[in-house]
Amino acid sequence: MKKLLFILLFIGLIQVQAQTCGFGCLGLSGIYGGYTFQEFDNKSLNERLQFHWSNTNIPPQELDFSKIQGFRVGANIIKAQFSYISFGIKGFYQFMKANKEFELFVNSDKVRENYKMDLSYWGLGVDFGFALLRDVIDIKLVDAGVTLHQPTFTWSSYIANVQQFEYKYVAEDIQLNYYAGSGLILHIVPDYISLEGTAFISFFELDNLQNEESGEGLLLTQEQLVKKTETINYSLQLNLGFPL
Length: 244
Fold this sequence. Notes:
elongated, about 10% helix, 2 helices, mainly beta
């Protein structure tokens, strides 16, 4: 009996640090949406378009597809806060589109060309960080993940408002890419609403796209449509949490 009382007294003297969870511990713990901006090297695509313009007497145009922006929506599958350390697993879908168009006269004919690039994709990511000011600001030390793309490029040409052709180029296979970065989380209403900013580098490559009908490649050679880039990209999102 004395041993039992001693053990209970000893346990009572130990300070126990409780573990808490933000945005839920398990299961669907929150949704989010936001804006994202991305840069990459697409020199091969610009060279392909310049080749077409030179063969059709169209003066060189300044169409830059190296910058693309869009919106991201997703769910925090797990967003756990253990004391001052946080860990999360998330899935998302990102809408990334660019639309370029020009109109001019070539030999008295009004020519209009339109180009639409769709780089929308699915992604799965993880993040790990700690609280700088608890319930106020968190630092994301690591925010990394993989993305699955099946991009498309639509090319339309008109003369005197009459469509001459519309080609749709698609990736033959799903493209796998990945990203890594870090950022800050500002807790507006702890566990319910937060604003999250991330700076990241995406290791991004896309193979040559193929014409849906003819199978012809968009590029003149077997170069990649988009190549790796080391520029810093950004995203800003609003999180809505549902503690469980």
